[in-house]
Amino acid sequence: MKISFRKLAIAAAVSAVVAPTTGIAQDGETVFEEIVVTATKRAATLQDIPIAVSVTSAETIEQAQILDISDLQSVVPTLRVSQLQSSTNTNFSIRGFGNGANNAGIEPSVGVFIDGVYRSRSAGAISDLPNLERVEVLSGPQSTLFGKNASAGVISVVTKKPSGESGGRVSATVGNYSQLVLKGYYEGAFSDTAAFSIAASNNERDGYATNLVTGQDMNNRDRQSVRGQLLLNPSDTTEIRFIADFDTIDERCCFAANLVAGPTVAAIQAVGGNIVPNDPEALTFFSNVDSTNEQDNAGLSMQIDKEFENVQLTSITSIRDLDTFFFIDTDFTSGDLASNSTDSQIETLTQEIRFTSTNGDKLDWMIGGFFFDESVESQDTLTWGNGFRGYADVLSAAAGAPGAIGSIEAALGLPSGSFYRPGDGTIENSTLDNQAISLFGQLDFNITDSLTATVGLNYTKDEKDVTIAQPKTDLFGSVDLIALGRGLIIQSLAAQGIPVATAAQIAAGVPADQTPLAGLRALQFQTPFVDFPNSVESGSTDDDELTYNVRLSYDLSDSVNVYGGVSTGFKATSWNLSRDSRPFASDIGRITSAGLGVPNLISGTRFASPEEATVYEIGLKAKFDRFAVNVALFDQSIEGFQSNAFVGTGFNLANAGEQSTKGVEFDLTYYPTESLELKLAGTLLDSTYDSFEGAGRDPLTGAVVDLTGEDPAGITDTSLSASANYRFQLGNNDAYVRADFFYEDDTPIGDLAIRQFTRSSENLNIAAGVRTQNDWGFSLWVRNATDHTSLISAFASVAQSGSFTGYRTAPRSYGVTVTKDF
Question: Which of 11, 402, 479, 612 maximizes the CB count within 10 A of its CB?
Fold first, then answer.
């Protein structure tokens, strides 16, 4: 797909509207409030900051019933949030770039910062949003100021500081699916120099899907959080902010629908299993167990701001602990075939120090450093259930080899039932230790009152040490079926009187895929593993990179600003901490020579090398009395994009040679009257894999796929968000009516054979509310009012060749919220 002339005409028309000769509403009073953001780690107005930033205010978040970052995409079209097989496996992308879920060894390409503290995994950023001031979404690589954590962009959540005044708010939300959300916030002061606040929430809701085996509802909500702040002002020039937070998740998630019922369905039914076949919109399913996931996420941070003459010192120190666990019925059928669990603990220490000039005339500057220290411990388990042996026997019979599995046991002298024993499988234990340091600086040269040049540099050094041990009790996966098959050929020829030596020569000449047992290799779902580090694989990476940004910003008038520049980004090596971590093909020979080789050892990837991002961008920002517009045109690419594709039993982590996206972002705000606010925002993208050889193996054919020239899956061409918010007086009370509509055109959601499945969005959200003079608030709301259904993601079904499974969007939800300020 290419950006059409029609779409480019839209962007050109938007730019023409805001040319400096325009006279829209310049004779009236402005209705815009000045928005101050900290996207460049220095307070500046949204109008003046020369990068593409989307800002969502606390008022919008409250009125639109945006509970967490996942809901934020309904008003920020450049942001896409996808939830995968558990609540905690949530992936963020900006302008189509992003990854990082499903694998503890992969850091996200989109950095999430809450009050300046980096959340190293997306699971640590999905709790209900606290008492907010705003959320900033920064598009494009931001590595100059945010280091290795922001090669695709940044989400910055800013909460309200304690004001020192006594007061607070309580709220209750009641909705369908027995939803009950309770929130409370209170702030006060211990003295003139010490203020505090505390916020807590409880979010519960029944699930909207039903397990037809257990009768349990799935995809429920059960989340709690508490957050306390202490703000100290020991002097007029010093501020110290302490934050402690804890949130927890304990949910039954996530159910998956069958998209294609392949040829293995008969085998599943033969062992007593069942599915709801070929129905991507199904809200019922069969599963012999209920999938669950749990998370505890806690942290402490301290920010010190100290003003000196002409300089401000900022120090942000944090420690965080993220514990996640999920257990899923990995075959998503009621047959007791297999289950998967993952248990991980991530401990993170960060320290940032920066110095910022405060009295710049011709020159503003910033210099600083960031230290990152993290340890990861993870255990991933995939084990067979009571029905898998029978399932495998049915499949082998269907392949023309009835009883073959038992015959192989006998030939090897193993007791009957040794293969696919319940509880056997893979238990993978992995660790990752990561230390990184970034040194950064930025200069803003105020060449004239209207023209500013910005130059920034960042040097990042990142070191990772990884261990993976994978004791395997799945004996069948370790059997060399080719060698065993050649042995059968030798026996057969010898029985015919052919000398053994001659028979061996004949057997050796038979192609591997034509040996008698070759067809059973498809049943070796878990092949052997070589632990590392070992004498061939070090298990260590050491990366460093210098990134930069160069921009020019020019004020055409008091109302119109244009800018342009280039920025680069960097994300360090990511490791494949999954059971599908495999030696590189280039290492197989050395592993064998070192005596580490095992039967059926296959190649793959241990890690993906660093990403290097570049964006060329020009933009325009204009704000008049009743009309404002921001437009950014960009050409963005990532060399070595770290692709993490699910391939049936594990993940293929690989570097794309290059992925590029050209596009335009825009947002417009118009006030026809002071009471009516109209907004339209959009992102138009043209994405492609400029080069991506070895993208993985097709789950149907097993062939290695070259995606060069293809459009990357999951990146929509057109995303639009439109809203109307009307404020009015209802008697003596303030009232509003609001509608938000989010649209995405149809786009494939999976690479390889999964490209046949697509996703789209047509979500309408409606809300209305009133606030009384005695500080009571009442609101009615509906999310996904049209009950639009679409897939979120799709994947090859585990151990079910030819079948595909996917996750669908949530149905319509509605409710009422009551608040009381005091």
Answer: 479
Query: How many angstroms separate the CA atoms of 122 and 193, rounded?
Result: 35
Rounded-to-integer distance, Cα 590 and Cα 801, Å: 32
Judged on CB neighbours under 10 Å (0-12, 13-18, 19+), 363 is exposed
Interval 385-411 mean pLDDT: 92
Contact between 564 and 551 under an 8 Å Cβ cutoff? The reply is yes
Which residue type sits at 431? T
* Secondary element (H or E) of residue 17: helix 5-17
Residue 641 in this model has a pLDDT that exceeds 90:
no
Q: Which two tokens stand for residue 402?
A: 């009835």
**Segment among 230-239, 506-515, 592-601 with least mean pLDDT:** 592-601
- In angstroms, what CA-CA distances link 389 with 80, 291, 480, 490? 41, 22, 19, 29
* 652 pLDDT above the threshold of 80: no
The span from the CA of 563 to the CA of 323, in Å, is: 43
Token code pair at residue 395: 């499949």
Rounded to an integer, what distance in angstroms lies between the CA atom of residue 442 and that of residue 437?
A: 17
Question: Cβ neighbours of residue 62 under 8 Å, at least 6 residues apart?
Answer: none
Q: Is residue 254 reached through a cis peptide bond, with omega within 30 degrees of 0 on the bond before it?
A: yes
User: Could you give the CA distance from residue 478 to residue 650 in angstroms, rounded to a whole number?
Assistant: 17
**Residue 113 and residue 91: Cα distance in Å, rounded?**
15
CB 339 within 8 A of CB 327: yes
Model pLDDT, residue 23: 37
The encoded tokens of residue 563 equal 């800018």
Looking up tokens 């300020």 gives: 821
Select the CATH number that applies to the domain covering 5-387+422-479+524-821 from these four: 3.40.50.360, 3.90.550.10, 2.40.170.20, 3.20.20.70: 2.40.170.20
User: Rounded distance, CA 782 to CA 497, Å?
Assistant: 81
pLDDT in tens, 558-581: 999 999 999 999 999 999 888 788
Give Cβ neighbours of residue 575 (< 8 Å, ≥ 6 apart).
Answer: 105, 106, 432, 464, 466, 541, 581, 606, 607, 653
CA-wise closest residue to 305 among 230, 353, 239: 239
Burial class of 202 by CB neighbour count within 10 A (0 to 12, 13 to 18, 19+): middle
Query: Which has the closest alpha carbon to 106: 514, 675, 757, 645?
Result: 645
CA 36 to chain centre: 27
CA 253 to chain CA centroid, Å, is 17
Alpha-helical segments (H) within 350-509: 388-398, 404-411, 481-495, 500-508
Report which secondary-structure segment, H or E, holds 586: helix 585-593
First to last CA, the chain: 54
CA gap 425, 428 in Å, rounded:
10
Tokens 């149905």 belong to: 811
Q: Is the peptide bond before 533 cis (omega within 30 degrees of 0)?
A: yes
User: Which pLDDT does position 430 carry in this prediction?
Assistant: 95
Provide the 3-class DSSP secondary structure of residue 518: helix
d(CA 766, CA 768): 7
Sign of CA dihedral 318, 376, 713, 809: negative
Closest C-alpha among 803, 768, 804, 807 to residue 790? 807
Which amino acid is present at 471? P
E-strand ranges in 261-358 read: 284-285, 292-308, 311-328, 338-357
**How far is 373 from 359, CA to CA, in rounded Å?**
34
pTM for the full predicted model: 0.89
Tokens found for residue 392: 């495998």
**Which of the four pLDDT bands, split at 50, 70 and 90, describes residue 33?**
confident
